[in-house]
């Protein structure tokens, strides 16, 4: 299989490859599960470590916000206009609102915990993150089950690809390798080949020469406190 070919299950020629979204959703599923565990693993008063986890949390929230903004701007209007399913679009928009509400609760506790690494604030933050994840998973499940088939049917390849292009534009250059690593971490070999095949040659070379090690090092440092947890 060449790097430029797509994994099995690719829709018929001329239709959007919506499985890309499923792969991206895995990142949010994984990271939303890790975050409350990382917060709880910070010792009381360990403010330097709390700052590291807080920066990680900020990147997660920023990434999720951009992801949902792109859906609000580029996907929902087209589904609303072409699929004649106003109820579903309203449902997706309302779910985005509920997710935003959970992140408001996260934002209420995160600054206090970041400053002090206080265990009480940390527990409240972890609980808020767990509530966020429950709401997020409901949305991701519905989106994959109900929306992506409509996207495949009603959007053009160019319209779908614009979502990915705009997503890349929002990434700071120093975060690109970490973002690629996050997408590839739980991908199958076919999915990895597809995503890397869509990257420019320079990007693929940078990933192989620098990015893989950078991402692996980042994960080791960030997740080290979880290594001995039961159920890993």
Question: Keywords, please?
Answer:
mainly alpha; 8 helices; disordered N terminus
The total of beta strands comes to 0
Order of helices and strands: HHHHHHHH
Tertiary shape:
globular
Spatial extent as radius of gyration = 19 Å
Q: How many helices?
A: 8
Biggest sheet, open or closed, and with what strands and sense? Answer: none
Helix content: over 70%
How far apart the termini lie comes to 33 Å
Summarize the entry for a quick read.
The chain is an all-alpha fold and 232 residues long. 77% of the residues lie in helices and 0% in strands.
Describe this structure in words.
This protein is mainly α and 232 residues long. Helices cover 77% and strands 0% of the residues. The protein contains eight helices and no strands. It has helices spanning 19-40, 47-82, 86-116, 119-154, 157-169, 176-184, 189-197, 201-223. Helix 1 packs antiparallel against helix 4 (119-154) and helix 2 packs antiparallel against helix 3 (86-116). It is globular and about 55 Å long. The chain starts with 18 loop residues before the first helix and ends in a 9-residue tail after the last helix.
Give the arrangement of secondary structure elements.
Layout: H1 19-40, H2 47-82, H3 86-116, H4 119-154, H5 157-169, H6 176-184, H7 189-197, H8 201-223
């Amino acid at each position: 299989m060449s790097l430029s070919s797509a994994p099995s299950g690719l829709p018929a020629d001329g239709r959007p490859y919506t499985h890309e979204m499923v792969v991206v959703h895995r990142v949010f599923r994984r990271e939303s599960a890790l975050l409350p565990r990382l917060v709880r693993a910070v010792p009381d008063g360990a403010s330097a470590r709390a700052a590291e986890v807080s920066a990680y949390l900020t990147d997660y929230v920023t990434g999720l916000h951009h992801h949902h903004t792109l859906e609000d701007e580029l996907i929902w209007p087209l589904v609303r206009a072409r699929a004649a399913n106003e109820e579903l679009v309203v449902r997706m928009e309302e779910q985005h609102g509920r997710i935003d509400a959970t992140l408001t609760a996260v934002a209420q506790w995160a600054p206090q915990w970041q400053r002090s690494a206080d265990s009480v604030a940390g527990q409240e933050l972890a609980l808020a993150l767990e509530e966020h994840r429950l709401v997020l998973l409901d949305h991701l499940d519905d989106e994959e089950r109900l929306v992506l088939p409509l996207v495949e049917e009603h959007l053009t390849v160019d319209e779908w690809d614009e979502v990915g292009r705009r997503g890349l534009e929002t990434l700071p250059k120093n975060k690109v390798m970490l973002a690629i690593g996050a997408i590839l971490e739980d991908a199958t070999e076919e999915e990895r080949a597809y995503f890397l095949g869509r990257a420019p040659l320079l990007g693929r070379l940078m990933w192989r020469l620098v990015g893989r090690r950078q991402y692996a090092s980042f994960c080791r440092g960030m997740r080290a406190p979880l290594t001995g947890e039961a159920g890993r």
